[in-house]
Amino acid sequence: QLLSEMDGFDTGRGIVILAATNRPEILDPALLRAGRFDRQVLVDRPDRSGRVAIIKVHSKKVTLATDVDIEQLAALTPGFSGADLANLVNEAALLATRRGADAVAMEDFNNAIERIVAGLEKRSRLLNVKEREVVAFHEMGHALVAMALPGIDPVHKISIIPRGIGALGYTIQRPTEDRYLMTREELENKMAVLLGGRAAELLVFEEISTGAADDLDKATDIARNMVTRFGMYEQLGQMTYEEPRSTFLGEAGLNLAPRQYSEETAREIDCAVRELTAQAREKALQILRANRAKLEDGARRLLAKETLLAEELPQPEPWTPVQQS
Description:
Strand content: under 5%
């Protein structure tokens, strides 16, 4: 009916039809052909300059302290949408109000970013002594591996205060710039950082816990994309084996295309993913073995203070590929 109505418009009447959707992948191709919705305008997440402009708009309704740097806020919020930035200003204003301040300070914005990224603090979630120790070494493992590897977002803060639904601790890294491309080495290093927590548990306690479940999920996802979408595994060639899947409202897996490769290739893909994640874990273990004393010292300090900022963290020795031998 929509197509019929659009075909019935007199092109000389000056009528312009606009439409918007969050699901362009499910539109009927007939809607997008020339003469119908033939001009498509992508409204993507804002870049750094866009975030600066959006924060300025929303911050007009609050009083900012002199230490607030909007350029720095924009640098700290890559991937935030306009709604996320509006929420950030509101959260920061609420935090400033709760502490009885006359203006919103940079500290309020930093705390608001943590709330949005990691969730609310759950100080009522009490961990026993052993669990706190495991979480402390886990988070310090993430931090030391991240600081030792090149091309990784700098560590801003680590904490063993539970947040959100399931996080018993967290390590916050702050990007210094927007990134649109990543090399194979950067992806491998990112996997090593994700597996740094489990590597620390294995190194110190010679045991592993369920605390790395989310890390394993993310690392496996990176490895599978490297193999099946980015052509970053030499033995499988420069080919793609899977199309990106829609995850709208949790619908991932409902519209999967049929597999276009053999059982033998599927086995090779599984082996390649296993190999990449194993290499990433070994890299994390090498870094932590070389910095064992700093891992122990940092974890003890974290247990004592619960939260450590970047300047309070021990600095590990930079990792180089030579150490792999």
